[in-house]
Amino acid sequence: MNLRFTSGAVAKCLVVLMLCSLFVGVSRAADDKEDSDIAKRIDNSAKVLEEIMATPDKAIPDKVMKKAKCIAVIPSMVKIAVGFGGNHGKGVVTCRTETGWSALAPITITGGSWGLQLGGQAVDLVMIVTNEQGMEHLLSSKFKLGADASAAAGPVGRDAGADTDIKMRSEVLTYSRARGLFAGVDLSGASLTQDKDETRLLYGHFVPFPDILSGKVHATATSESFLGAVRKYSIQSKESGKNESHSTSVSGSK
């Protein structure tokens, strides 16, 4: 009797252990997938910025990159409903600090019927915060473009001139790329918020938007591809501006 009871109990325990190990395995697999999704999104954001800036006549102007307070990229924004209000995408943002560019903050953008006017089924979005007021709105961790923060379709072309000066008065300049076509786009009505779930996955725990973007958090190794692209083109733009100023002063002295 005791032997049978013991054998039955052992069998039940083995079944329970097998189920527990299976559950743990599935959980770990899900966590690994989520981690890889974040890494892929960061790498895709870096790729979008690299590809856009690699074509001078279609790139974000140097003047815009030089003065940028924050840079956000949302790769593969998709339309999830027919008609209106069906646009949704995830990406990352970084802001300038006294010691360089901040760690990345995961973001989500939703809303608006503007998403696919360039003809694609998915679009890459780029947003450039141009001044301190726009940065303050971003740090609030939730704002609506065109309402809480003034937004305008960004000028295109590395050497864009007068049009750039006018549009730089907006707090946020916005761009869209679909099927190879890159242009300024009106994102009015879209809401941008911190992606809290992905923030936890990226840093291991929740970190408030302002802490990340003000430089209080160290960047993860996963973030380096995007941060490297941002450093590359913001520094390149500054050097371009210096060269232009030098050329102007030299020609003036003649």
What's the N-to-C terminus distance? 109 Å
**Percent range for β-strand residues:** 15-25%
| pLDDT averaged residue by residue | 76
- Which secondary-structure class do the elements indicate? alpha+beta
Q: Label the overall shape.
A: globular
What share of residues is helical?
40-55%
In total, the number of strands is 10
Helix run count = 7
Quick one: biggest sheet? Answer: 10 strands, mixed
Order of helices and strands: HHEEEEEHEEHEEEHHH
- Rg over CA atoms, rounded to whole Å, is 23 Å
Count of the domains: 1
- Spans of 5+ residues with little confidence (pLDDT < 50)? 1-5, 19-33, 81-85, 115-120, 239-254
Give an account of the 3D structure.
With 254 residues, the chain is of the alpha+beta class. The chain has one domain (52-235). Helices cover 45% and strands 23% of the residues. It is built from 7 helices and 10 strands. The protein has helices at residues 2-53, 62-67, 132-139, 162-167, 196-203, 209-213, 224-253, and strands spanning 70-79, 87-97, 100-101, 105-110, 122-129, 142-144, 151-153, 172-178, 181-184, 191-194. Strands 1, 2, 3, 4, 5, 6, 7, 8, 9 and 10 form a 10-stranded mixed sheet that branches. α4 links the parallel β7 and β8 (172-178). α1 (2-53) runs parallel beside α7 (224-253). Mean pLDDT is 76; it is low at 1-5, 19-33, 81-85, 115-120 and 239-254.
List keywords for this structure.
254 residues, alpha+beta, 10-stranded mixed beta sheet, 10 strands, 45% helix, 23% strand, globular, disordered N terminus, disordered C terminus
